[in-house]
Design goal:
Elements: E1 3-6, E2 11-15, E3 19-25, E4 31-38, E5 90-93, E6 104-112, E7 131-138, E8 144-153, E9 158-167, E10 173-185, E11 190-198, E12 201-209, E13 213-219, E14 231-236, E15 246-251, E16 257-263, E17 269-275, E18 282-284, E19 289-300, H1 303-318, E20 332-334, H2 336-339, H3 345-358, E21 362-365, H4 387-390, H5 394-403, E22 407-412, E23 416-418, H6 422-426, E24 445-447, H7 453-467, E25 472-477, H8 496-514, E26 519-522, H9 532-535, E27 540-542, H10 549-559, E28 568-569, E29 572-573, H11 586-593, E30 599-601, H12 609-631, E31 633-636, E32 645-651, E33 657-664, E34 675-676, E35 686-689, E36 695-697, H13 698-703, E37 706-707, E38 717-724
Parallel strand pairs: 20-21, 20-30, 21-22, 22-25, 25-26, 26-27, 27-28, 29-30
Antiparallel strand pairs: 1-2, 2-3, 3-4, 5-10, 6-7, 7-8, 8-9, 9-19, 10-17, 10-18, 11-12, 11-14, 13-16, 14-15, 15-19, 16-17, 23-24, 31-32, 32-33, 33-38, 34-37, 35-36, 35-38
Helix pairs in contact: 7-8, 10-11, 11-12
């Protein structure tokens, strides 16, 4: 097995194919972290040092040994109130008001297979692919227990961590902070790489040196958010795409989260990831438990590129589920930028006819088909088809679309309600809002209380009535505001934010079980909930509401550090672009959209014959490379925030085929030449450019690269396929 326990010295060792993770139960029963990094042999407890640290606290049972303090020792699950003044992974307020939890080792279990988490998404694996370590810690005074869970995917170099906090005592306690993973490093200088943004400009890369004190990222918006993605990298100095050591942490959760990095007085570094603190005051009655969402850990000593490959494989093969986790996605045409709210059934049929002529697989009817919904100020929650607007039943519309050889998809926003809706007028208490106060509005809509089963069940039944009316093969699940007024008419205060997210997961679990062939695309104003938790239910997520291809080069660059191309919803949109007003060629828009699931956000009826012919060629090209795009190894060939161009590459598993894409982001007078160096090829193999027949050695393409053409005109795009000779 990948997990070993040495009884004589109480050391746990986890070995993956290329990494080692080690920890130890010391003489006082505290679980100390020893090592995580490149594979090593032997015991690493020699790294622990002991000396008098002055004002650092000493556990009472250390009997006055001033050289022993949790304030300076590396720990697996550091606790508030135990003499460690650094940021804690767990803080518990006891029934007497004290903030203290003294967890000591009680036992462990090692077993085959990967653990699961009740009500939460988590990495999954076949029994022979994974091992689980479960360590039980207990506070002998309060009875509080924590089960630390470690899942090990040995071949994937993936270690997952979670924690189950259980009140085994006789009094209620309140969990005020809960992380699923914490890493302590006794030495090293690190940078924190995080991915910040805003609506329509998500996941821009930020690299910061970790200095003394604390650095944090997170979300208090009720979702993982546009502002900070729940995935970070801790990197040694000078780590780049192909060199250096780095640690990735990806939170498998779609609600508010927190991540903090702290460099202490002695130059040690701690990083934890878990639930966000401001809205976490989770009461635990005696016998009750709180399951902390999972964090996926990965280490690479070959830079960010290899780290990304390992996370991509994990997401594709061990997080995304169902028919479409590995299947090529349909090319779709969404009605939103084609007609917004101004459409009828004839409009949708017209789009379907155009789609059939252009070789597009599916038409999606976006917002505006239900209730009284001709703008975004009313109707949410009233999930009845507006047959007057469509001019027919939904079933008839779907039959008409299908008769053209085109599949049908539909947009929904189940978590929301408009004040101007029949549902809200009948059940105002079903919305999250504080009694006696006017609610905070966003897009004139409120958030339904999905922590309550009766609310979820009502919406589920109404949505299923809609989906049962015809052959619906795709659903776009949207969520268009952040959560405020975190108060429920039924759910215990302090639990609402967490139980809300579990309610969303419960709804999605039932939906995927009832419609196993349905392709669901997640969305929250684009990329406001782009996280591994949603990918467990929706194998693709609309990457951003910003469809401008120049901006998308940068948005998709940041996204690529943790999430595979197969998860990235990306479409060719109309020009001038509806978000920026920028005009880019169809070729450029198509090349950028092929770094994703590929589709369209435009009205084909407004295109001329030359553009229509080009769309047919783009569709043919995408289908030619679809399997490579979906399953190939993704390489970043430039930094579009620094370089004059954005370039990326997809390479087949056997390195026999590569698809290189590049977009010029800058153009100047007397332009300099830009050389793109390929990656992931066989050095000694000969590769043919399938467009012009020229051949190059893999070493030449990787060491010297290819010059991009020097041409006038903004945002020109280039796409080249290389095949190994003889393949």
């Amino acid at each position: 097995m990948a997990i070993e326990f040495q009884q004589e010295n109480h050391i746990f060792t986890i070995q993956t194919e290329n990494t080692t993770y080690q920890m130890k139960v010391d003489g006082f029963g505290f679980l100390l972290h020893l090592y995580y990094g490149r594979s090593v042999t032997g015991n690493m407890d020699y790294l622990l040092t002991y000396c008098d640290r002055g004002f650092s606290g000493i556990p009472y049972d250390a009997e006055g040994d001033r050289t022993y303090s949790l304030d300076v020792l590396p720990q697996e699950y550091p606790l508030a109130g135990m003499g460690d003044f650094r940021s804690a992974a767990l803080a518990v307020r006891n029934g007497d008001g004290s903030l203290c939890c003294d967890l000591r080792y009680k036992g462990h279990e090692i077993k085959k297979g990967k653990y699961g988490l009740k009500g939460l998404p988590a990495v999954y694996a076949e029994e022979e692919e994974a091992d689980t370590l479960e360590i039980l810690l207990e506070d002998p005074v309060s009875g509080m227990q924590v089960r630390l869970l470690y899942g090990v995917l040995e071949k994937e170099d993936i270690i997952t961590r979670s924690a189950v906090i259980h009140n085994g005592g006789k009094e209620e306690a309140v969990v005020e902070r809960a992380a699923s993973a914490c890493l302590d490093f006794v030495t090293g200088e690190y940078d924190l790489i995080s991915f910040y943004g805003r609506h329509a400009m998500e996941r821009s890369l930020q690299r910061r040196e970790i200095g003394y004190g604390s650095t944090s990222v997170g979300s208090s918006r009720g979702t993982s958010s546009h502002q900070h993605n729940p995935a970070v990298i801790l990197a040694e100095k000078n780590t780049g795409e192909e060199w250096g050591s780095c640690y990735g942490m990806m939170f498998v959760y779609s609600g508010s989260f927190g991540c903090e990095v702290q460099k202490d007085q002695f130059g040690q570094t701690r990083i934890w990831m878990g639930l966000e603190r401001d809205f976490l005051h989770y009461p635990l009655e005696p016998g009750a438990s709180l399951v902390v969402p999972e964090t996926v850990l990965c280490f690479s000593d070959q830079g960010f590129g290899e780290l990304s490959h390992r996370f991509h494989r994990c997401v594709r093969n061990h997080i995304c589920r169902g028919r479409y986790s590995r299947q090529v996605r349909p090319v779709l045409l969404n009605s939103w930028e084609a007609s917004y709210f101004d459409f009828t059934g004839e409009t949708i049929c017209g789009l379907a006819k155009e789609a059939a002529e252009l070789g597009i697989d599916m038409v999606v009817m976006d917002d505006g088909w239900f209730g009284k919904r001709d703008d975004d100020n009313s109707g949410l929650g009233d999930w009845q088809v507006n047959e007057e607007k469509l001019g027919c039943t939904l079933g008839k519309l779907i039959e008409s679309v299908n008769s053209l050889g085109v599949s049908f998809g539909i947009w929904i926003e189940p978590e929301m309600v408009s004040e101007d809706s029949d549902l809200y007028r009948a059940h105002p208490d079903w919305a999250l809002q504080v009694p006696g106060r006017k609610p905070v509005l966003s897009r004139n809509q409120l958030v339904l209380d999905f922590s309550r089963e009766e609310v979820r069940n009502h919406i589920f039944e109404r949505i299923c009535r809609v989906l049962d009316q015809g052959n619906v093969e795709y659903v776009k699940w949207d969520m268009n505001r952040s959560i405020t007024d975190v108060y429920s008419a039924e759910t215990v205060p302090g639990k609402v934010a967490y139980e809300y997210v579990l309610g969303v997961y419960d709804f999605l679990e039932k939906l995927t079980a009832r419609y196993p062939a349905l392709l669901i695309e997640g969305c929250s104003g684009g990329g406001g909930r782009f996280d591994a938790g949603m990918l467990y239910y929706t194998p693709q997520i609309w990457c951003s509401d910003n469809t401008d291809a120049a901006d998308r080069v940068r948005i998709q660059y940041g996204t690529s550090f943790f999430y595979p191309v197969s998860a990235v919803g990306s479409h060719v949109s109309a020009v001038p672009n509806h978000q920026t007003g920028r005009i880019l060629s169809l070729e450029t828009r198509g090349v950028v959209a092929m770094a994703g699931t590929f589709g369209y956000e435009l009205d084909p009826g407004k295109l001329d014959e030359r553009e229509r012919a080009q769309i047919k060629r783009l569709n043919g090209r995408y289908r030619k490379y679809a399997e490579l795009i979906q399953g190939g190894d993704y390489y970043r060939l430039s930094d579009p925030f620094q370089d004059a161009y954005g370039a990326w590459e997809l390479v087949s598993e056997d390195a026999g085929q590569a698809l290189v894409s590049a977009v010029m982001l800058e153009i100047h007078g007397n332009m300099t030449v830009n050389y793109v160096k390929l990656k992931g090829l066989k050095r000694d193999a000969l590769y043919e450019n399938m467009e012009d027949g020229k051949c190059y050695s893999g070493a030449a393409l990787m060491e010297a690269g290819l010059p991009l053409p020097v041409e006038t005109g903004e945002y020109r795009a280039y796409q080249m396929e290389f095949r190994e000779k003889g393949k």
